[in-house]
Design goal:
globular, 3-stranded antiparallel sheet, mainly alpha, Cytochrome p450-Terp, domain 2, binds carboxymethyl coenzyme *A
Length: 429
């Protein structure tokens, strides 16, 4: 990539130099913060197609080359060698933990997995068929009221809130799984391994025991790693913008969960599986469905395809497809749907519409099939994405709060309404 040497902008015949912000790798930035003061002009960039909202040292993506790195480590290496809690430590603290530090984090998180009785009552107050993402967002915001000692900007509060969020949202998500499947809530144990304990709370019978299938355990840990961060995506940007008002971390993450629930973001994993089922139910061939997507008249999109940043194969999608292949052949999941998904991918990848627009499968294309094979109902797919993304949200909130240059997030607009008019009394309208 060629480095920009300087940037100039000419407005009404006057040229100004715009300062450059240097990256360590990837795109440098042209700083436009003083443009309004100097020229009276604002920059326009709907959807932030070309706007860097902050500096960050957490995650790097090269969308053309299909590269994803957490704190410099390639996702493929972390997926192969690491564990989710180790990755959480890396994202939040910047370095891989020693064995002692990792054990300390696991123990601390395990000790905080129990939730206040009031949280259980709160979960029970929602309709049984409430979407778990709505309940999760509400419960996450409510954590600040049950654990006020962890609310604040000091080091102690920040560390405590980090552990509380990792621990208690895992229990809440496991409880949501129990609610969806009709089981009673069971108590977390205080000495378990994080992912094992999540699975035990989610899946055990009334005696609280669960024989964890090592294949499922490994696949779940891996999926959580793949979802752990993705730089300034919609939900993380939401967490940052809410936090920039100095709202507490629980309120900020709760808002991020709301953003994640949308079908263009994390909700795409649930939407992709519904799409596969919809194709089967309609009796359409895969080719006919692809034709409808290209036609756009019916508003159909190929869910689990396309990405704002990746313009080649999403590296997370590649790992998920590989794991889905192994897990489904070992556990005997829905092979028919997996085959249909692969056929859909094959057709799309050789079709001019998708080639031209650089649309490839993203992480959400195959995850639903995997989660299903593990025993999670469809509504739980996006909460599982949230469980994985938790360390990323926490890391970004902390990075932003620690940066003295952070300002409240407050975009400008191009006003297109009425200029000025006089009030008409009600009786005269
Ligand atoms: N199916 C059909 N056409 C598509 C798709 C798709 N999945 N994605 C993009 N396009 C078309 C779109 O219609 C547009 O066509 P045209 O140039 O003719 O108007 C072009 O490709 C560019 O699309 P865009 O919507 O302007 O691109 P974007 O960067 O704003 O949107 C996206 C990115 C992920 C929202 C979009 O690709 C999409 O809706 N994908 C389906 C939902 C999905 O899988 N989301 C998960 C994203 S990855 C995980 C995560 O971040 O949560």
């Amino acid at each position: 990539m060629t480095r920009v040497v300087d940037a100039r902008l000419t407005v009404d015949g006057t040229t100004r130099e715009l300062p450059l912000e240097r990256s360590t790798v990837g795109n440098d930035g042209v700083s436009v913060s003083t443009l309004l003061k100097d020229t009276g002009l604002v920059t326009v960039d709907p959807g932030f197609m070309n706007t860097a909202s902050c500096e960050s040292a957490i995650t790097y993506i090269d969308g053309d080359a299909g590269i994803l790195r957490y704190r410099g480590y390639p996702i493929e290496q972390l997926a192969e060698h690491s564990t989710f809690l180790e990755v959480a430590y890396l994202l939040i603290h910047g370095e891989l933990p020693s064995e002692d530090l990792l054990a300390a984090l696991n123990n601390r998180v395990a000790r905080h997995m129990h939730v206040h009785e009031g949280i259980k009552t709160f979960l029970g107050a929602f309709p049984r068929d409430a979407h778990p993402m709505a309940v999760l967002s509400g419960a996450t915001s409510a954590l600040s009221t049950f654990y006020p000692e962890s609310v604040g900007r000091g080091e102690h509060e920040t560390e405590l809130a980090t552990v509380q969020l990792l621990a208690k949202t895992a229990t809440v998500i496991a409880y949501l799984q129990r609610r969806v499947t009709g089981g009673d809530l069971i108590e977390p144990r205080k000495d378990g391994n994080y992912v094992d304990e999540f699975m035990r709370i989610a899946f055990s019978g009334p005696d609280g025991e669960l024989d964890i299938d090592p294949t499922i355990r490994k696949a779940l840990d891996l999926l959580l790693i793949l979802h752990a961060d993705h730089e300034q995506n919609c939900s993380t940007s939401t967490v940052r913008i809410v936090g920039s008002s100095q709202a507490n971390i629980y309120a900020s993450v709760s808002a991020g969960i709301g953003a994640l629930s949308g079908p263009l973001h994390g909700g795409a994993n649930e939407a992709a599986l519904s799409m596969f089922d919809g194709i089967k139910e309609s009796g359409d061939t895969v080719e006919q469905f692809v034709a409808k997507v290209k036609d756009k008249a019916e508003g159909a999109r190929l869910m689990g395809f396309g990405h704002r940043v990746y313009k080649s194969y999403d590296p997370r999608g590649a790992v998920v497809k590989d794991v889905a292949n192994k897990v489904l052949s070992e556990l005997g999941g829905n092979d028919e749907t997996f085959q249909m998904a692969q056929r859909l991918e094959e057709i799309a990848l050789s079709d001019e519409y998708f080639i031209e627009r650089k649309l490839y499968p993203n992480v959400d294309f195959y995850t639903g099939l995997l989660y299903s094979a593990m025993g999670f109902p469809r509504q739980m797919f996006t909460p599982l994405f949230a469980l994985g993304r938790m360390p990323g949200w926490i890391a970004h909130y902390r990075e932003m709060m620690a940066d003295p240059r952070t300002k409240i997030g407050r975009p400008r607009q191009i006003y297109t309404g009425e200029v000025e008019r006089d009030y008409t009394p009600l009786a005269e309208r």
